[in-house]
Amino acid sequence: MTKKGLKEPLTAITICGVGMGSSLILRMTAEKAFEELGVKAKVVATDVGSARSMQPDIIIGQAMHTEEFEGVAPVIVSITNFTDHQALKEKLAEPLRQQGWME
Amino acid sequence: MANVVTATLVDLEPQGWRGAIRAVCAPLLEAEAIQAAYIDRCIEMVDEHGPYMVVAPGIALAHARPEDGVLKLCLSVATLSDPVLFHHPQNDPVDLIFAFGSPDDQQHINLLTALAEGLSGGLADDLRRSSTQKAAEQVMKEVLKDVIS
Question: Chain A: residue nearest B99 by CA?
Fold first, then answer.
């Protein structure tokens, strides 16, 4: 059984076009969401181009960016409001449970 | 705490999303925090990568890269009395636009952290309710009080 998410931190990336504005705001929101879900995760903000060479457990971004990553990471979540951690929590909970990364 | 060039504008009526980006960036250019080319790059970012910088319903965050012409760390915001369309599938129309510039890939982090905190705590509506520039400035000052010297 994997201990990822419970003891060992998951790797998550938040993506946007440049990798320093929108994705940074989304990183804060994601960190808050993971914390409230009780899931350990290291969140990195990056641009779409750099994301292509990464192998994270979780990718979070707008649908216009996440679509191309389908199948690349075990969990891919598309959100439209980068400031709403409640909405992100709701979207993350089910796939995290399915992966055994959340109790 | 950092020195940050800030600007707050209210009730603008820009011509489309390109006009909105130009308008919110204008005071930063005026203050010599960015070069004119930076504004063009902010617009090109949307052309190249799509309207991803519309980060929440009605809210856009325009920016480009440090090497695109940033001279000083800066942040501006404008409320739009005439909202614009960025052609975002869910978050249009935009009536609140921020622009920032960072001289490197680190200096803006505290600033944007404070902005993110503010946005998750009702900053957008507080700004939308601000009928004068002074009121909006006060709202921004409060949100950024721990990061701007």
Answer: A21
